[in-house]
Design a protein that fits this description.
Shape: elongated
Strand order of the largest sheet: 1-2
Order of helices and strands: HEEHHHHHHEE
Helix content: 55-70%
Strand content: 5-15%
Largest sheet: 2 strands, antiparallel
Structural class: mainly alpha
């Protein structure tokens, strides 16, 4: 969600790799659901009483495959975040420091999530002979604490303080539909963004709703531009 809003607010076309800002959340949530389903399937196979050893191991391997999928998606996200960081350096010199601060928070959270995922992989890497599940302290240190620190990071560097106001939110589906129907523009149009005006080192929203622009005008995008 944070990454999508950053693409919406800090890029001139509200898209990255041709993907619209409001689609990032949908895509990564779907990928996370896929990884969760694989993990749940493996856990269900491995759980239960009186199951043969090979069935339990099969379930553990499927579970670990789901965890591996999750880390693969995190790495994809890291690459997208890196490319986004490069793009904002070229496009938003006015509030670059704030955008970069939020990106550093993103990187920190990704590292914490990776620590948790790697721990889960190590936990059952030895199969049923692993002693890690028998020691609760490992769960607290490598599973619970990283997620706690991730919450602390997002509370200290809160996205809402860097991207404040209603004009920084995604347009609703109804608003997008009405805009395209009213303006006879395709969904690939980069003009469906909040109109803003610059006031020195900061920017002030001129309109929170969508306002179609003339084709010969040069649009200004995002409330942070």
């Amino acid at each position: 969600m944070v990454m999508g809003r950053m693409v919406y607010n800090f890029t001139s076309r509200a898209r990255l790799f041709g993907i619209k800002a409001w689609r990032f959340t949908l895509y990564f949530v779907l990928l996370d659901i896929i990884a969760f389903i694989v993990q749940a399937g493996g856990a269900s196979i491995a759980s239960g009483q009186d199951k043969p050893r090979h069935t339990i191991l099969l379930g553990l391997h499927i579970y670990m495959g789901g965890v591996g999928f999750q880390e693969f998606f995190v790495l994809i996200f890291c690459y997208i975040a890196f490319r986004f960081s490069q793009q904002i350096k070229r496009e938003i010199p006015i509030r670059l420091a704030q955008a970069q601060l939020l990106m550093y928070a993103q990187y920190a959270v990704l590292i914490l999530i990776t620590i948790r995922i790697v721990f889960r992989l190590i936990e059952y890497a030895s199969g049923l002979d692993s002693s890690i599940p028998n020691h609760e302290v490992y769960q607290y240190i490598f599973d619970t604490l990283p997620m706690l620190f991730a919450l602390v990071v997002y509370n200290v560097i809160h996205p809402g303080r860097i991207m404040p106001g209603k004009e920084s939110d995604f347009p609703s589906r109804k608003e997008r539909k009405n805009y395209f129907l009213g303006g006879n523009q395709s969904e690939n149009s980069s003009q469906m963004l909040p109109i803003t005006k610059s006031t020195g080192s900061a920017t002030m929203p001129e309109a929170a709703a969508f306002q179609p622009q003339k084709q010969d005008e040069v649009p200004s995008y995002g409330h942070v531009r």
